[in-house]
Amino acid sequence: MTTNANYWRTHCAERLMRLFTARPDSPDRQAPEAFEVTLWRALAVFRLATLAYAAILTARNFQSYDRPLAGWVIIAGMTAWSAVTVSAYARPSARSWPLLTADLVVTGALLLASRWVVGSAALSTGMPTVPIAWMACPVLAVAVARGRRWGSAAAVMMGACDLLVRGQLNQVTLTGTVIMVVAAIAVGHVARLATDVQVRLQRATELEAATRERERLARGIHDSVLQVLALVQRRGAELGGEAAELGRLAGAQEAALRALVSSDAGTAATVVPAGLVDLRIALGRHASAEVFLAAPATPVWLPAPQAEDIAGAVASALDNVRRHVGPRARAWVLVEDEDDSVRVTVRDDGPGIPAGRLEEAAAEGRLGVSQSIRGRIRDLGGTVSITTVPGQGTELEMRVARTRHLGPDRTPLP
Predict the structure, then answer these.
(1) Whole-structure pTM value
(2) What is the per-residue pLDDT for 400?
């Protein structure tokens, strides 16, 4: 027994702290950046490939340039800047506006220098600029780092530089700008979408890990704490007196803890639909040593207002049991999940309700059954039936149709 208690105090408590305390610098927290690393590597490959293409075109056309040697100087500058940016963009901390702005400025300057190197006459005949497709690299970098809007703005700015180089608006200039804008929108959208997907995948992975940890803790609790509480309850009942009251309290805590562990283990891995509540958890708060809850193994999803009203009606029914049968009266709550409705049954082992007693209570202004129970369920469009047999207890059955949408007054909408 001492070993079990020590296990709970040390092992389980330590795991709980580890489960609910996350380190901000944990590698798991940095996992959503993994896909961005792939994008930046792809951009580095694109930068080097377009640099090689620009060098090939320069080797082919440099003799037609006004200043052939300057063309190779631009290629050398493009090579040096490619080395700087490929190395810098590999570090997440450097992917900010200072580097992005410098990338745009340097690329724009090398592009504008093409007018002086190639010559206006050659450019007017369709001769490509020296950077050619390499000028799209900073546009794509902005799209990946800041999204499609800023990427589109960078594409327009780079297209304006290309227009200044050529000195006239023609089909070549317009096509290049349109291609860069479309590429920026596509890359920015894919980057943001992929990052969101990665974040959701990471959350699902963390949720699965947390579920396994809860299941492991549940087994530890079952093997230690729940057994101790059950033993205290049984021994207290055998000893009687004040020990019996202690045993009753231990039994209540055992039932509450058992309901908590089972609900956590059963729903932790389930994605909670928006606006819905698991009715099992809402009713689990009423479980105790005297109140036994039987529910399906799978979640019973209901709109939050609907689940609250059903839980309120069950609470009122259990309160009537304690008031009229006794504080230690036993009660059973049964939850049945049907295709188009949910049925909740509350049964006690009391003496039953005398004939006509419910009508007398309503006439005397006691609204426990008529309003707290029947009124709530009626507002939900459900029905309540009460079956009582003298000496055999009372059974109260509430049936509510599944309603996804409720009005401001909690009445079902068509």
Answers:
(1) 0.51
(2) 93
